[in-house]
Specification:
With about 575 residues, the chain is α+β, with helices and mostly antiparallel strands. It has 2 domains: about 1-270 and about 550-575, D-Maltodextrin-Binding Protein, domain 2 (3-Layer(aba) Sandwich), CATH 3.40.190; about 320-355 and about 370-545, Dipeptide-binding Protein, domain 3 (Roll). The strands form 10 sheets. A 5-stranded mixed sheet has the order 10-11-12-2-13, with helices on one face. A 3-stranded antiparallel sheet has the order 1-14-22, with no helix packed on it. A 3-stranded antiparallel sheet has the order 5-9-8, covered by helices on one side. A hairpin with a 3-residue loop joins strand 10 and strand 11.
C-alpha cells in the first residue's frame, strides 16, 4: 500500500519556484486559531504542536522538509550519527538491539552551554510515561522497548502533582532496554524486532530532555515558561492562547543538524484567529506569511489556482472522523452498544462533509479507519448510503430495534477553528433527521485535545458523547501501527490516550499483536486490514473523509518546504524575497 505514495505535490502552479531560496533573516509571521495541546514534547500530539516542538527539540532521527514526498518521509539521522543497520554494527542480527552513536556539537541553550547526551534521551523517553500528562503515543514504546511496560506501570502510581516525586522515580527506576552506555552511546533493547523503530524515535515524544525539566510537573505552566532548546530556535516569549515568539538559539550549529535550518531571525506566531477567512486575508495582504492551524477557505480555492503561493498536497488521514464515547452513562449507556453506533453510522451525510472542504479535489469519502496510501488500507463500506448522503430512515429503524425508538440526546463538543463549526452543524442536522438531538458545545479555549477528549474521568461521567477529531498518521512509509494502535488499542486507554472513546475489543487487540509480531510488512498489512474490518463491524467510529491539504503562503515567502506529517511548511526553512 505504501508504494502508491509517489509524490507529495498534487498541484504546484507553474509560477511557483519551489527551489527559489530567497534571503535568510527577517521575521516570519504565522497566524492561526488555537494554542498547542501540549508544549511538552513528552505529551504533544497535534500537528501544529509537533511543528512548534520541531523548532526547539531534537530527536535521534527525523525528517527533512521537502516538496518531494519521497524525500520528506525518508527517516534520516538527526542527533544520531547514522541510521543503525546490521552492516554498520548499529543493529544486532536478531533485530532487537540498537546501538546509537550521538553526534558532537549538539548543545542545550543553557548557561554555560552543554552537550546533549545519551542520558538526556533516556530521560526524554522515560518522561513519555509521566503520570501528569502521559503521552498519547505511549503504546508505541511500551510495545517495543524492553522493560518499558513495567516502568510505566510503576510510574502511574507516582503522585502526578509532585515534580520531585516524578524526578525521583525516573532517577531511581531503570528501564531494562534503555542504557546510556556513555555520553554519546545509547543502547536500546526491544521486546521483539520492530522494522519501524527508527520512525518511533523520530517522533517528538522521544526528544532529548535536559536535566532541568525534572524541576517541573510536565507541561505545567511553570514548564511552559522554562522550555530549553537544542534546536535552531528557542521560545523567548509565550502568552497562552495568544502568542509565541521564537528567536535564534545562538548555541545551535548548522554542522550539527542535518535536517533543519535557521533562516528567519525571528518567528512570531499569533493565535486567536478563529476564522479561516481572517487568516487567509492576513496571508494575501502580507500581514502574515504562513498559516498555523487554519485551512485555505473553500470559497477561495478556485480563485487561487494560478497563485504562486498556493499548492494542494496529497493526503493520507482519517480526518475528520466521528468518535463515540463508549463509556458515557448518558441515554442508559447507549453509545456502549454496537447496535446504536451502527445506526448512527447510517445517519451521517459524508458527501456534505466533502462539499464543506471544497469538493472532491480536496476531500474524498472514507469508509474505513486506515486511510488511502497507508499500510493496511483496503476499500470497503459496511454502512453504505445512496450517494454517501446518509440514510435517516435506516438509522431510525435500527435505533428503534436497539431499544431507542424516541431517539437520544448527545453532548457534542466541537472545535471552532477551520471548518469544524460547519461540520458540527451538518452532523447535528443529520442526527436530527434520525431523531437524535445533538447539543453542540463550542470549544474556544483549546481544551478539545488537551482535556475534553483525553480525560477518562470526563468520559466516564458523560461530559461528552460524540466528537469530531482528526487523525494524521504519525509517519508515512512503513506506518501500519500509526492509526490502529493509538486510536483503538484499548489496553492502553488512560489519561491523554488517543483512544478517545475508550474502545476496547480483545479481537482487535489480538490482531494488533499479530501485526506487530509479523516480520514481513505485507503479512502485517493483512492483519492491520483485518483489524480495520473488525473496528468498523463494531462501529467504533464513523470515518468521514480523507483530505488533501490546500496550503498558501504570502508572496514574500521563498524556500517553503513541506512536512507531510504536520501538513505544514517547516518554519526554520523559510526565506524571503
Amino acid at each position: 500500500m505504501a508504494a502508491g505514495l509517489a509524490a507529495v505535490l498534487l498541484l504546484m502552479p507553474a509560477g511557483c519556484s519551489a527551489d527559489e531560496r530567497g534571503a535568510a533573516g527577517g521575521t516570519l509571521r504565522v497566524a492561526g486559531a488555537s494554542d498547542v495541546d501540549h508544549l511538552d514534547t513528552a505529551s504533544v500530539y497535534t500537528t501544529w504542536g509537533g511543528l512548534l516542538a520541531r523548532q526547539f527539540a531534537r530527536t535521534l532521527f527525523g525528517h527533512r522538509a521537502s516538496n518531494d514526498f519521497g524525500e520528506a518521509v525518508t527517516v534520516r539521522p538527526d542527533v544520531a550519527v547514522q541510521i543503525p543497520t546490521v552492516r554498520n554494527g548499529g543493529l544486532s542480527q536478531d533485530g532487537r538491539t540498537y546501538t546509537i552513536r550521538l553526534r558532537g556539537g549538539v548543545l542545550w541553550n543553557t548557561s554555560p552551554p552543554r552537550e546533549v547526551t545519551a542520558a538526556d534521551f533516556v530521560r526524554g523517553i522515560k518522561r513519555i510515561c509521566n503520570p501528569a500528562v502521559p503521552s498519547g503515543g505511549k503504546a508505541y514504546y511500551v510495545e517495543t522497548i524492553a522493560g518499558m511496560a513495567e516502568f510505566c506501570a510503576g510510574y502511574a502510581e507516582v503522585d502526578p502533582g509532585s515534580a520531585a516525586a516524578m524526578a525521583r522515580y525516573q532517577r531511581r527506576t531503570k528501564v531494562a532496554g534503555l542504557v546510556a552506555k556513555d555520553a554519546r552511546t545509547l543502547v536500546i533493547r526491544l521486546n521483539r524486532p520492530a522494522s519501524d523503530f527508527t520512525s518511533l524515535l523520530a517522533l517528538e515524544f522521544a526528544a532529548a530532555a535536559p536535566a532541568e525539566y525534572d524541576r517541573y510537573i510536565p507541561d505545567s505552566p511553570e514548564f511552559r515558561r522554562h522550555t530549553i532548546s537544542d534546536g535552531p530556535y528557542q521560545i523567548t516569549s509565550y502568552t497562552p492562547g495568544r502568542r509565541y515568539v521564537l528567536e535564534k538559539n545562538r548555541n545551535w550549529r548548522a554542522a550539527s543538524d542535518p535536517i533543519r535550518e535557521q533562516h528567519p531571525d525571528r518567528i512570531e506566531i499569533s493565535l486567536g484567529h478563529d476564522s479561516p477567512d481572517e487568516v487567509q486575508r492576513m496571508l494575501e495582504s502580507g500581514a502574515a506569511d504562513l498559516p498555523w492551524d487554519q485551512p485555505v477557505p473553500a470559497a477561495r480555492l478556485g480563485g487561487l489556482r494560478d497563485d504562486p503561493g498556493f499548492a494542494i498536497m496529497e493526503g493520507s488521514a482519517l480526518d475528520p472522523y466521528l468518535v463515540f464515547n463508549t463509556l458515557s452513562p448518558n441515554n442508559r449507556g447507549a453509545l456502549g452498544r454496537t447496535a446504536v453506533r451502527r445506526a448512527i453510522g447510517y445517519a451521517v451525510d459524508k458527501a456534505a462533509i466533502v462539499r464543506i472542504y471544497g469538493g472532491p479535489d480536496i476531500a474524498e469519502v472514507l469508509n474505513q479507519v486506515i486511510p488511502p496510501h497507508s499500510v493496511g488500507h483496503q476499500e470497503f463500506d459496511l454502512y453504505p448510503t445512496p450517494g454517501d448522503g446518509g440514510d435517516p430512515g435506516t438509522c431510525r429503524r435500527l435505533l428503534a430495534q436497539a431499544g431507542y425508538p424516541r431517539g437520544l440526546t448527545l453532548k457534542f463538543p466541537y472545535r471552532v477553528s477551520g471548518y469544524h463549526p460547519q461540520i458540527a452543524r451538518s452532523i447535528t442536522g443529520d442526527l436530527a433527521a434520525c431523531g437524535i438531538t445533538a447539543v453542540p458545545e463550542p470549544d474556544r479555549s483549546g481544551a478539545f485535545y488537551r482535556t475534553t477528549l483525553v480525560t477518562p474521568a470526563r468520559a466516564r461521567a458523560g461530559k461528552w458523547d460524540i466528537a469530531v477529531p482528526g487523525w494524521v498518521p504519525d509517519w508515512y512509509g512503513n506506518n501500519g501501527r500509526t492509526t490502529i494502535v493509538p486510536l483503538f488499542d484499548g489496553r492502553h486507554y488512560g489519561a491523554n490516550s488517543s483512544d478517545y472513546g475508550g474502545f476496547n475489543d480483545p479481537a482487535v487487540n489480538r490482531l494488533i499483536d499479530q501485526a506487530l509480531n509479523a516480520r514481513d510488512v505485507d503479512v502485517a498489512s493483512g492483519y492491520w486490514a483485518q483489524a480495520d474490518h473488525r473496528i468498523m463491524a463494531d462501529a467504533a467510529v464513523v470515518p468521514l473523509v480523507n483530505q488533501r491539504t490546500p496550503i498558501f503562503h504570502s508572496d514574500r515567502v521563498r524556500g517553503a518546504r513541506y512536512l507531510p506529517q504536520y501538513r505544514a511548511y517547516d518554519l526554520n526553512q523559510v526565506t524571503f524575497s
